[in-house]
Amino acid sequence: MNLAPHGAGDCLPQRRPQSITRAAPSTSGAAKSKFLSVTVKVEPVINHNPQTSTVKTQTYHKLPIWLGALALGVACEQARAVDFHAATAQQLQNALTAAASNGADNNIYLTNGYYEGNFNYNSSEANNLTVLAEPGLTNTDVTIGGAGVGRGLNISSSGALNAITVQGITFLRDCGTNGFGALRIAAGGSATIVVSGCLFLSPANSLGMGLELASGQNATVTNCTVTGVIPVNGLGAGGSSGGMLITGVTGKVILENCTFTTNSLGGFLLLGGLDTSGG
User: Fold this and answer.
1) Does this model's pTM top 0.70?
2) 3-class SS at 63?
3) Which of 62, 57, 52, 131 lies closest to 95 in space, CA to CA?
4) Could you report the per-residue pLDDT of 196-249, keeping only the tens digit for each?
5) Are 50 and 41 in contact (CB under 8 A)?
6) How far apart are CA 138 and CA 170, in angstroms?
7) How far apart are CA 266 and CA 246, in angstroms?
């Protein structure tokens, strides 16, 4: 701005109102941009001409900002876990089926009762899954059993970087064969598995393992009890098998505060180059 004084002929002030002008929006580029050009005319004083200064703001990309906000909203929506509440065997399977493909993290709560069936979750999405008892219930209030014809709960997830958690549930080792576990989890190569506060119990004359971990990166099993039965007619005839089988977990396996009793093929079996810790 030029603030130098002018001659006597300019001594009479001419008051002009302040004016603001806006430049037309730019249409260049894939997304239209807008800049705002503001012209401020300062009222003159005696012996001075009006001074004019122009302030030009930075360019505002409204469309990218809107898209960024939309993407953030979608991300926040995906970050929210979806809660399911099951009170029957059919509701449990419906929740597992819906959770496998809804694009969100999921919590499946089970109310007290006995859930009989061969429940299955099969997903390729990289979302977390938690199956647990309703708040206030203990692990003896919720029981899942395979009715002697298969696994009680089979969780298969090929998605990377997710977490599979099962907690506070009783599983009956009535799979009909020693080669199946009452709870089987096969997670993705970068996934984390947590099994906490569960009971794996063998009814009389039942067949089946307790917990079967087939794949995943890291696994933690805490505060679980795995109990078998003494074979009636020798191994594999009216008796349970090993309590826990972990074969495909590639990283660290932590067993902590777990109890293994009366398992005809041993309490637990770890296969592979595993780093185990805990007690």
Assistant:
1) no
2) helix
3) 131
4) 999 999 888 888 889 999 999 999 999 999 987 765 554 444 444 678 888 889
5) yes
6) 9
7) 13
